[in-house]
Amino acid sequence: xxxxxxxxxxxxxxxxxxxxxxxxxxxxxxxxxxxxxxxxxxxxxxxxxxxxxxxxxxxxxxxxxxxxxxxxxxxxxxxxxxxxxxxxxxxxxxxxxxxxxxxxxxxxxxxxxxxxxxxxxxxxxxxxxxxxxxxxxxxxxxxxxxxxxxxxxxxxxxxxxxxxxxxxxxxxxxxxxxxxxxxxxxxxxxxxxxxxxxxxxxxxxxxxxxxxxxxxxxxxxxxxxxxxxxxxxxxxxxxxxxxxxxxxxxxxxxxxxxxxxxxxxxxxxxxxxxxxxxxxxxxxxxxxxxxxxxxxxxxxxxxxxxxxxxxxxxxxxxxxxxxxxxxxxxxxxxxxxxxxxxxxxxxxxxxxxxxxxxxxxxxxxxxxxxxxxxxxxxxxxxxxxxxxxxxxxx
Length: 394
Fold this sequence. Notes:
Elements: E1 10-14, H1 19-29, E2 33-38, H2 58-63, E3 67-71, H3 77-89, E4 92-95, H4 101-104, H5 109-115, E5 120-125, H6 140-146, E6 154-155, E7 158-159, H7 166-189, E8 193-198, H8 199-206, H9 208-217, E9 234-238, E10 244-248, H10 252-262, H11 266-270, H12 277-282, H13 284-295, H14 300-309, E11 313-316, H15 320-324, H16 327-331, E12 335-338, E13 345-348, H17 371-377, H18 382-390
Parallel strand pairs: 1-2, 1-4, 2-3, 4-5, 5-8
Antiparallel strand pairs: 6-7, 9-10, 10-11, 12-13
Helix pairs in contact: 1-7, 7-8
């Protein structure tokens, strides 16, 4: 087995909530040493969102495995000095503090890279630098609302926030991928870089289809629940045994197979007003009613048998427990265990899979768990560390 690809790299995360912690967790999964900087008075506020996982917040467990927690009062002179020493050894700095907070402490990406030219530093913000929204607080729901992703989710006239934090995840993953690109660039040039990623820009980018559709037509499509405004038939239909089957027909050939081989309605396949996707989208309600009338008289297993025979794409509409129990995750051994302050916890393996990379998923840290060890590694003796604790610096 080869070493993990980011082994030997030191990442410092001045982070909270989801966006930056998710980015640094992925770096940790790939072998980087990640030191998470937390306020001695409570730490990352995501620690207190709930106590769902044996007393630890579910968000925190998800985004913070494999890190070392260093408590540090960055507003104190002693804390700022320790941080500067740490940055002198670091390869990457990622921060997602409130607007202006990092700059006031000299920790914006531009400030940090000016002092440490080999450093790769990332500012994650709500709306980016400049513009009328730059100083706004930007939580996931707020950014999704401004970024229109809520308007394409839900039902006509009843918008909804996507159930996962799309803005946070999007920004975190762009920060992650940008760091990887910057590390490659540094290998060639020897120089780090300052990077900024805005949650709003991530949502705007992911709104690419509806954005370009409205740019081209002037029409804002309505959300379709479990479906798509772009394709029909494409959605969720009830079965006789109380489940939901989700059908996907993305081209005319699939539609004809669905009509003739599954529904046994050759007349629908031959109907000119259903011939093209645009035609079917225009008459979506008619087709949905026909399909629902057929599915609700049959159990899921019987429907699946026909869909398989006709090579039509489908899925069962699952809940969260269904995902936890999903046979695909079990068959591919996607579950593992990670340590935590409350004992071993179930966790999913990271999505990238390679035969060359051994798995190394570290524990979820308690607040300040590695503070003394990190300080000792920076050359602090026991007496000095004790004094820092007494003064509230760490």
